[in-house]
Design goal:
Layout (H helix, E strand, L loop, with lengths): L1 H53 L4
């Protein structure tokens, strides 16, 4: 009986660890998504700036 409760505590710990890992990977993918949005905006801004500089008269 003691072994059984130890095993279940261990498996609970394992599932908590795997849950933390999945939360961490979710966070990582959210960060990488934010970064890609940021770099896309930066690219658009750079393109707009270049276009504005290029279209100046003279």
């Amino acid at each position: 009986m003691v072994t059984n409760s130890k095993q279940s505590a261990f498996s609970n710990q394992l599932s908590a660890i795997s849950f933390q890992q999945s939360a961490f990977s979710n966070q990582l993918s959210a960060i990488s998504f934010q970064f890609s949005v940021f770099s896309f905006q930066l690219m658009r801004y750079a393109h707009a700036t270049r276009t504005a500089i290029g279209s100046k008269p003279g």
